[in-house]
Amino acid sequence: MESWAVTSDAMIVGSNTAKTGTQFFLRKIPPEEESDFKKPDIQPDDTRAYWMIADSRGILEGLMHVFRRSEYSKDVIVLVSEKTPEAYLNYLKERDYDFIQAGAERVDVKQALEIANERYGFKLVVSDSGGILNSILLEQGLVEEISLILTPEIVGKNGTNLFRGIEKSGTQLELVRNEIVEKKYVHLVYRVLKKVKAIMEVMKTEKYKISFAFMTYCLLSQLTVS
After folding, report:
1. Is the pLDDT at 23 greater than 70, yes or no?
2. What is the pLDDT of residue 224?
3. 208 vs 5, 78, 123, 125, 193, CA distance in Å?
4. What letter does residue 10 receive in the DSSP assignment?
5. What is the rounded CA–CA span in Å between residue 187 and residue 177?
6. What is d(CA 24, CA 13) in angstroms, rounded to the nearest whole number?
7. What is the DSSP string of 74-85?
């Protein structure tokens, strides 16, 4: 596991990815308990990351306690927009979830991260999400590193494109390191170049400064090498 994945301040996840995770790992959603209606008791030496879940439509209503209970999460911060249903905001308030409201129709990820930086002091955020959120982060110049784990499996036309939402091609990467894992997988870490580099230099001169890294897993057929 990369050191930034362990010591990151927060991990950002899209609501669709989060919901899929509950369907994949849980046979049945456990009922809420009294303890789910209050923030967990966080110790000063707790090194776990917060989970920031982008959910402007409120599709995770009734499921949020699953993520709060996770042994890998310090607590959950929900990212919402101005169009998020009032009923969902009340659901979050009743259970004492912090939420960041940014964007009109959908979550403005860049603005939400700026608020998270100011409110919580987050400096390093990791994305472990799907193609939509990953694409938004890349296009807005918020990514410094991409970490890929390749598995020796060809999935063909049914494979998922991890960056399917990117409108413009040409994002340049620089290989930082590579490693064989368990004699089977290949772990590649790339630094994002060009546009993102220039934006990050500007950010370093301003009050807002936040590093971003992907922790992304892909299958072999999704990588094109020329």
Report:
1. yes
2. 30
3. 21, 20, 9, 13, 20
4. E
5. 8
6. 16
7. EEEEEEE-TTS-
